[in-house]
Amino acid sequence: MRTEHSRITDPTGEPPAGTPGLRADALHNRTRILETAREAFSTTGLDVSMAEIARRSGVGIATLYRRFPTKEALVTEAFSDQFAECVSVVDDALAHPDPWHGFCWVVEKVCAMQAVDRGFTMAFLSAFPDAAAFEKKRADAEHSFARLIQRAKDAGGLRADFAYEDLILLLLANGGVVTGSAAKAPEASRRLVAYLLEAFRADRAAPPADLPPAPSLDLEQVYCPPTA
């Protein structure tokens, strides 16, 4: 026998449209799902399943899909702030009076973001054809970074053979360091980036920059990287 309660709820645990409290409940669930997704993607990467996100969020799987119909929708929303920050960082670097230092600052900033958030870089390197706003932010960041590369070359700070694809290579290398160095990831990333920036520098007559301190690592981490 159906009760009044059963008529105003569905299997997702949310009241149907038009019932009191829907807006607050829906907003609460959405916020909780996004916070959980950001944490999971940050520590584990994008392979976390939608079912696991729902479980960690404490909501039903139907509620999750009601708020985010696809995993792509969840990923793009979870990283919208980071993408906006990335675009802002590159734009600020373009305004820097020293193009080479602006270039270095962007590389250091993006790699530092990667060192504390594995999911962000995976999202940046992934394609989301159905997420127009997200793809536009990435296109804006790529276009601005290409301009930054050319300015740094024209100013004589960046070697002439540096290509945009070298940024992807750098992120892949940094991602490997981040995965293998666990708690030491930020320190390891900073040192790797310092080495690579030295290799990218065109002015070989200038004295090399001081490297950040070497992190405490051992060979076991090369063969058996720790898991999150």
From TrEMBL:
Upper lineage: Bacteria, Bacillati, Actinomycetota, Actinomycetes, Streptosporangiales
Keyword Transcription regulation found: yes
Membrane-spanning intervals of the chain: none
Domain of life: Bacteria
Designated name of the protein: TetR family transcriptional regulator
InterPro entries reported for this sequence: DNA-bd_HTH_TetR-type_CS, Homeodomain-like_sf, HTH-type_TetR-like_transc_reg, HTH_TetR, Tet_transcr_reg_TetR-rel_C_sf, TetR_SbtR-like_C
Coiled-coil ranges (or none): none
An annotated Gene Ontology molecular function: DNA-binding transcription factor activity
DNA-binding region of this protein: 49-68
Domain HTH tetR-type as annotated: residue spans: 27-86
Residue ranges, annotated region (Disordered): 1-23
Entry keyword set: DNA-binding, Transcription, Transcription regulation
